[in-house]
Amino acid sequence: MNDYSSKSRFVLSKEVLMKQYEILKEYADEIVYSFKTNPVVGKVLESMSDCKFAICSFNSVDRIEDKSRIVYFLQGENEKEISIVLDKGVRSFVVDNENDLNRLLSILNKKKVKIELFLRVKVREHTIYTGKYFVYGISWKRANELISKLKENEYISTLGIHFHRKTQNVGEWFLKEDFEEIISEENRKLINKVNIGGGIPVEYVNSKPDVKFILRMIKEFKQFLNEEGIELVVEPGRFLAAPAIRLETEIINVYGDTIVVDASLFNGAMDVYLLGYRYPVVGEKEKGIKFLIKGRSPDSLDIFRYKVFFDHVPKVGDKIIFKNAGAYNFYTDFNDMPKIKTVIVERFEER
Predict the structure, then answer these.
(1) Which of residues 203 and 131 earns the better pLDDT score?
(2) pLDDT per residue as tens digits for the range 43-68
(3) How confident is the model at residue 349 (pLDDT cuts 50, 70, 90)?
(4) Structural domain spans, the chain
(5) 187 or 173: which leads in pLDDT
């Protein structure tokens, strides 16, 4: 019941995931994977790596067995919830507003436990494409006032700064300049770690970041910080999750230049729906016979690709495989469509 006779599935390659993880070791003192990017990827990383996990939900804490590997992002938790998180063994926190900060400090004073604390600081946006997004963080001016006070707090063993660009950030990677702009030279001597959030981008059909340039900028920033006695923490996000997963679908209808597959943006590719990224397709050509690939819901926006070229006319029963499909592939229950399952394999099959 409610299976739509669907054969679609996500396929996670442990080989690709660990290859991406190994790449990052050169560029970071510490790697923190944002668990919300894809929890299935997070569980594989938990068993196969030494990375830590950014947790943004009280209900997600128990998804990670070793709570010492959690970096918890506070967002309005009450005192009871914060106390429970501490009692479970979480000792690293990120705060982006003073209400959460003061609540956390008050509880630390009562419990007499020490933590690692990151202040999330707003950085200046240099593009015009950020208007619809809420910018998290404490103002740079206020953050500089807080750093010296927090450094003296006996319950803060490690003090860090966290700053965050938008997801799939392809252009704003002048990290050293951002850091020098927001943190005073005097306060830099008081900081133990800097966490660059927001993830490292990957390639989609309509978004082609210069990843080599971005990694070079991260490496230069790491060298700069290390010379100052500061560690660099990187949150790679979709750089790990996206290439490690493919979405395998089956064609259920072909008419004119339209292909319909047995999956939907709504039950497995909400990143495409919300942000408009378009997955590459295995076997597509630069020129040839043009098709639109549509999901099976009745929504006119349920489109995986508006334009993809093949050297033949696909038929019902053929596979359409989307690459870089592992980031934010959460689902909705729209039209009673079930969640697409993820299978874990050692490596992708060659096609």
Answers:
(1) 203
(2) 999 999 999 999 999 999 999 999 99
(3) confident
(4) 14-241, 246-345
(5) 187
Q: What is the pLDDT of residue 109?
A: 96
Fold of 14-241: TIM Barrel (3.20.20)
Architecture of domain 246-345: Beta Barrel (2.40)
Q: Residue 128, Cβ neighbours under 10 Å: how many?
A: 6
Q: 131 CB contacts (<8 Å, ≥6 apart)?
A: none
Assess contact for 340 and 272: CB atoms under 8 A: no
* Angle at CA of residue 140, ends 114 and 30, nearest 5°: 50
Find where tokens 């630069």 sit: 286
**Do the beta carbons of residue 141 and residue 183 sit within 8 Å?**
no
For residues 165 and 198, is the Cβ–Cβ distance under 8 A? yes
Quick one: pLDDT at residue 351?
63
Give the bridge partners for 117, in sequence order.
93, 159
CB 147 within 8 A of CB 159: yes
Per DSSP (E only), the strands in 205-318 are: 231-234, 245-255, 258-261, 289-294, 303-310
Classify burial at 73, counting beta carbons within 10 Å of its beta carbon; exposed 0-12, middle 13-18, buried 19 or more: buried
pLDDT of residue 165: 66
**Per residue in 103-143, pLDDT tens?**
999 999 999 999 999 999 987 654 444 444 456 789 989 99
* Beta-carbon-side half-sphere exposure of residue 259 (alpha carbons within 13 Å): 29
Which residues are CB-contacts of 204 (< 8 A; sequence separation ≥ 6)?
277, 278, 279, 280, 324
Instruction: Compute the distance between CA of residue 55 and CA of residue 21 in angstroms, rounded to an integer.
Output: 19
* DSSP letter for each residue of 298-310: S-TT-EEEEEEEE
| Angle ∠(246,249,251) on CA atoms, nearest 5 | 150
Give CA–CA dist 336/62, Å, rounded. 28
